[in-house]
Structures are given as C-alpha cells and as structure tokens.
Design brief:
Nucleotidyltransferase, domain 5; 6-stranded mixed beta sheet; binds adenosine monophosphate
C-alpha cells in the first residue's frame, strides 16, 4: 500500500465551512466544496456541516476514514505571539487557541468548533493548525509594536499581528519561483487585495512588515473595512456622535471601506461605475488607490531593494485597472508596468512588467488551501 498522501483542508467560518481534499504528490484537488448557512434549519451546527462533508467524501470513495488521508489541516485565524509555525493540535494547543478568542472573537470560535468536530470524527488522525498570523511573527519589534505605553500594551497583548499570512507566504515564494530565484534571494511587496486586503514586505522570504494589525481592520481600504484612520475618530464618534462601542465596531468593519464610500464593495461594480463616469465611485476608487500607493512606497523604503511587487486575491488577480493605477508613474523607482501584459486575463502566475523593469510586477493567484495542506503535510512527515 502506498503511504498516506492526502490532506483534507478545513476553513471553518462562523456560518460556513470550506473544504478541499488535496493529493500531495501532485497538488491535485480530489474534492472541494462549501457548506453554507450553518446555524439555520437545514444545517443547525458545525457538527452537521462536517458530517455532511464526510458523507459527501465517502459518497465519492474518498471518506475521511480512508487510509490515504495523512492529516487534516485547519485554518486558524489568530495564533497570537505564541504560534509561529504550523502546529500539531493537542488539547493543550486547543486551550491556547481558546485563550486567543478575545483577540479574534469572530473567527477563532468557529475555527475551534471545526477542530473539535473534526477530532471527534477522526481522533487518531494528525490534525494541524495553520495560523493566519504565523508568517508575520518574524516582524521586528519596530514594526510590530504600537507607540503606546508599553505596560498597557503588554497587559492587553496589544501589538500588530497581521493576517492573511498563509497567502502572503505562498505568494512571496511563488513569485520567487516565477522569477527563477529562491525565496531567500528576493525582496517582495505582496498586495493581497480581496474583500479583505493587506500588504506585506517580505525580505528574503521573511515577513518584515504587514498592513493589518491587532485585528484585520488596520491598513488598506477594503470592501467594507476602513483600514487606517486616526484613532481619535473613534473617540470623536463616541463623544460627539454618541455612538456605542458596538456601533463603531459595526461601522468600521461592516459599513466602511468601498461600501461606505460609494455603496458598492465589489470592485467589479465600482470599476463599472467609474467607467460610466460616476463621481462617487471615482472618488472611492481614488481613495483605495491612494492608500495602496502609500503602502507600496512605505514598503519600498522598509525593504530598501525591491525585486517584485506581487498582486493577488480577487481584486489583485482580476482588476487590471487597480494594478495599473497602483504603480502608475513609478518608473523612477524602477517599476515599469507593461499595459498590454497587464490587461491579459489568465489564471496563471505571470509577470506583467516590461522586460527591462528593475522591479518585476507580477500577478500570482493565491492558493491558501494548498499552502495549508503543504504545511500540514510537512509537519506530519517530520513527526513520522
Ligand atoms: P476575495 O476576497 O479574494 O475572494 O476577493 C473578492 C473580491 O474580488 C470581490 O469582492 C470583488 O470585489 C473582487 N473581484 C473579483 N473578480 C473581480 C474582477 N473581475 N474585477 C474586479 N474585482 C474583482
């Protein structure tokens, strides 16, 4: 019999579970899917959702009890300062993830539930947590700390953790390969532009700064999140506007960003409106781009030398107009986009800058599931 070479990747959200079964020998997807609307009548809880996924896999002859399954890899959003690498899940690890719930009250509880249910399903199988924050734990203190009173910061674990780490890690490595170099040899600015959005500065394969902070609210303008703003805005809204903490939370996380600025959080719709000459959409687009360019410039200075700028996620992979506006006029920094290459649509990783551009501009479709599977498989392999 051949060795177990498949990994089931689970991404448990508060009302959905996404899964992929990946064959590691060739990275092929044997099955993938999504169970939505957990908590409603059809699917009251995560246990039902996972049972449904297990049934679906069994139906296709790929059941979770098959000997080919080497591990289950779980996406976990917040690993705090403790989890710097993929981690084999034990009771103790699960307790530590529970302790981090106050830092990610929307995400970690769902991740934990997914893990608990999966462990019941296959108690004997290695289960691995892959943290969204782990890739960023290499940030120097100068980038990770906020300039607030140290004792207060330490007491409440207030520091910059960063998110989307699995994507930043995958894309920074993949773009190095695209350039025919090793990750250690290149400095990369990764722009993960999806509904949530973040930038990172990666020096020789190591993350040295990222735009999200204590929570995924900091940084770039996103679909529904504000990104950076003067913290006194919150105080002002509370004191002068009388908004409660929960109202401010909802405002900044769910009613801001592109949605708050122009009423649309989908960049396709924003692009369509801009093309029609809609001034509200144009201003929202300009604010989005202005913030993005500030991060590109900032991370250029952080890195000193930049070999590549890699665009990824829904907007980064698909919106040629966003990529063009983000790097327009930066030839003096060695960034020289090729408009023809940039406008080609493709699902493949590709360079879209001119051949003589000192900094390669690339589009690299992200693959967080594959990265999670590889990290989980690598850990299980090592443990054997
Ligand atoms: P993600 O969070 O990575 O799944 O990205 C989702 C976002 O990608 C959507 O909200 C859209 O705004 C954006 N998106 C997807 N396709 C396109 C496209 N063709 N052009 C512009 N934006 C797109």
């Amino acid at each position: 019999m051949t060795a177990a070479s498949r990994v089931l990747v689970l991404n448990s959200g508060s009302s959905s579970v996404k899964y992929q079964l990946i064959e590691m020998t060739d990275a092929s997807r044997l099955a993938s899917g999504l169970v939505e609307r957990i908590g409603e009548r059809d699917c009251p809880d995560h246990a039902t959702a996972l049972a449904r996924i297990a049934d679906e896999l069994a139906h296709r002859g790929l059941g979770v009890d098959s000997p080919g399954l080497a591990a289950i890899g779980h996406r976990v959003v917040h690993g705090g300062s403790r989890f710097t690498a993929p981690t084999l899940i034990t009771d103790e690890v699960l307790d530590a993830v529970r302790e981090l719930v106050p830092l990610a009250p929307l995400h970690n509880p769902a991740n934990i539930t997914g893990i608990e249910v999966a462990r019941k399903l296959r108690p004997d199988l290695p289960q691995v947590a892959v943290f969204d924050t782990a890739f960023h734990t290499t940030m120097p203190e100068s980038a990770a700390r906020y300039a607030i009173d140290t004792e207060t910061a330490d007491r409440y674990a207030v520091r910059r953790y960063g998110f989307h780490g699995t994507s930043h890690q995958y894309v920074s490595r993949r773009v190095a390969r695209l350039l025919g170099k090793s990750p250690e040899a290149v400095n990369v600015i990764v722009l993960h532009l999806g509904n949530g959005a973040s930038a990172s500065a990666v020096a020789g394969g190591v993350c040295v700064d990222t735009s999200m902070g204590l929570t995924p609210l900091e940084g770039l303008v996103m679909g529904t999140r504000s990104g950076d703003l003067d913290p006194a805005v919150l105080l002002h809204l509370h004191r002068v506007g009388g908004l409660s903490v929960d109202e401010i939370d909802t405002l900044l996380n769910r009613r801001s960003g592109m949605l708050g600025l122009c009423g649309d959080n989908d960049m396709r719709e924003v692009g369509r409106r801009v093309a029609e000459g809609d001034p509200e959409a144009k201003l929202a687009f300009d604010i989005y781009i202005h913030r993005l360019r500030k991060y590109i410039g900032g991370y250029y200075a952080v890195l000193g030398r930049v070999d590549a700028i890699a665009f990824t996620a829904g907007v980064g992979e698909n919106a040629a107009d966003v990529r063009e506006a983000a790097v327009a006029g930066l030839e003096a920094l060695g960034i020289d986009l090729d408009p023809a290459l940039n406008s080609v649509r493709s699902a493949e990783p590709r360079v879209v800058s001119r051949a003589d551009s000192r900094v390669a501009v690339a589009v690299v479709p992200t693959d967080e599931e594959l990265e999670i599977a590889q990290q989980a498989f690598g850990l299980v392999g090592k443990a054997e």
